[in-house]
Design a protein that fits this description.
It is built from eleven helices and 29 strands. With about 550 residues, the chain is an alpha+beta fold. It folds into three domains: about 270 residues, Neutral Protease Domain 2 (Neutral Protease, domain 2); about 200 residues, Sandwich (Immunoglobulin-like); about 70 residues, Immunoglobulin-like, CATH 2.60.40. Helix 4 crosses helix 5. Strands 5-4-8-2-1-11-14-13 form an eight-stranded mixed beta sheet. Strands 16-17-18-20-19 form a five-stranded mixed beta sheet, with helices on one face. A four-stranded mixed beta sheet has the order 27-24-23-29, with no helix packed on it.
Length: about 550
Amino acid sequence: MSNYLYLTVIKTTTMRTILSFVLLIAAFSSTAQNLKSGGRLKPEQAIMDIRHYTVALDVDPAQKTINGYTEIDLNLSQATNLLLFDFWHGLTVSQVWVNGKTNNFTHGNDDLIRSNVQQQLPVGKVKVKIAYGGTPGVAERAPWTGGFQWAKDSKGNPWIAITCQGEGAKIYFPCKDHPSDEPNEGADMIITVPEGLVVAAPGLLQKVTTKKGKSTYHWKTNYTISNYCIVFNVAKYKVAKRIYTTCDGNKVPMEYYVLEENLDKAEKLLDIFEQTCRIQEKYFGEYPWVKERIAASETPHLGMEHQTNIAYGNKYKYTQVGGKDFDWLLHHEFGHEWWANKVTNRDWGHMWIQEGICSFGDALATRELAGEDAYIKRMQQTARSTQNKLPVVRGDEVDSDSAYYGDIYGKGAFFMHTLRYVMGDEIFFPTLKKLATDPKYTYDNTVMTTDVEQLFSGAYGKSLKPLFQLYLYTINKLEIHVQQTADDKYLVKLMNMDMPLPVDIVTDAGTQRLTIDKKGTTVTSKTLIQVDPKVFYLKKVIFE
């Protein structure tokens, strides 16, 4: 969950200070409107396949209200008399239509809309329209607690942002709020604001119409999209533009929606945006949304991964990495275009896939800009910062609150570092890119930890499941036992791993990469050996 950003990019402050800050934020975090996303899929929703959302709202910054409707196109796999949607009870539903006909409904404090139809709906397509309005919940601490943020720029103009990854989009439009079901045919957003304000949203801008002192912006994405990315930003924006040529030669608009007061900073940010895109594409393949655009919008909160329009609020606080200007926030959020938006976990319990690998991508930026040694030092610090108080994966059918834990970032990233060492770069990096590019794991096809394990095991040629189990499903570290059997002999063996692993061991003759298993390997050295000195494993070394 990138609104709990795992700040691991090299900065002027220490890595320990950064992690402490993140964990402090998480400890005091609570979800707006006391909501959470995902969990056990409701049977009434399991039979619904969401195809498309249309969210049409009139936004009143002065009154801090929204009014309009949402249309939901879905396919039923079973006949039913009941349609069930998630929607916060603090907003008022005025009418529900099913296939164009008004329908009875209830909307209670359980944050569910129930609409019963007299004549059973058959298997197939259904269109539901829900009209509603009111005062949406305010983000207590955006982006760490979701909701609407009604801010103002330095000139007093309205500046509005929405964040809802933890809570789900049900905080402001009716939906099926579960990560396993994204609208395969995308979403339309038709947002009306006072004239003079600009709306930025996912996909491509279709048209802008202005009348009677109001402007309506129609945005459309044809790609599958997580419901928490179906959000918009409003401000008195200017738009800085250029064309970006992807690694596969496709030309994509690159846009930055910037406050008027910061327009002079836009070109520099776009330069850094291009740099970060090159790095992401090198490791993870072509930018995922080439038929639409690359974009960021300046927001009053720190940032979020909103598809084709990431939220940026780092206030141009660039750092130097390898002698080049770098923006950790921009890089991390943009990395989620691959890890979260393109490769999406089917269940929040497997959130490490998108958060851990995205954080590993942050470390790869250090590698690209500052070199391998800087990358190694960064991963060593990540190892020292790992908490190991809870498993990274704590089961299936887990809601967003229960799934979130700081180690899904750092330990997830370090696990990829371990896999890289075990597999070797020649196998690891192509496999990682395959995870990010193969249709089996991307866009409409969501993933679980077993999918990742089977992919990497297949590429490695032997099962990596014991390593996945140790790192992701337990809080144990790899235990390596060292027994001195003679003046210059050491027996080195694994204690809690049922597979042989390569391990770097420093002897009087230098560093050797040896294969170690439970039976043990004898190492000769006239000096005391060192085990895994560069820290490729989260480990406990026991000398006897």
